[in-house]
Task: inverse folding
């Protein structure tokens, strides 16, 4: 498989509340996933389907303030079953002239 799209955004999803015994996959506070487009290994597919929509908002040029949040690129969301809480953070992937990622810098307002 050869990926042909260069992603402009990366996402960090952190479990902020919940115990392993409450989650079918055993997710618990402190677990973290880093991804761009794909569903990360060990992530709940039900929650990823819900999460995908919020990632698409960012990829399409929107931000979370349209939802009434204070932060443009960060939000808290519950899992699809409501037993775990997550914090989603979107981070732009800046690239050099060769397409390689550069260190992240905040996007201008």
Result:
């Amino acid at each position: 498989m050869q990926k042909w799209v260069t992603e402009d955004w990366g996402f960090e999803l952190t479990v902020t509340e919940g115990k392993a015994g409450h989650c079918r996959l055993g997710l618990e506070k402190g677990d973290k996933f880093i991804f761009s487009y794909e569903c990360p290994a060990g992530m709940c597919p039900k929650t990823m389907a819900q999460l995908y929509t919020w990632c698409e908002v960012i990829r399409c040029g929107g931000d979370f303030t349209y939802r009434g949040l204070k932060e443009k690129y960060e939000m808290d969301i519950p899992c699809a079953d409501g037993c775990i809480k997550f914090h989603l953070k979107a981070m732009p992937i800046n690239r050099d002239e060769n397409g390689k990622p550069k260190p992240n810098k905040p996007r201008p307002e």
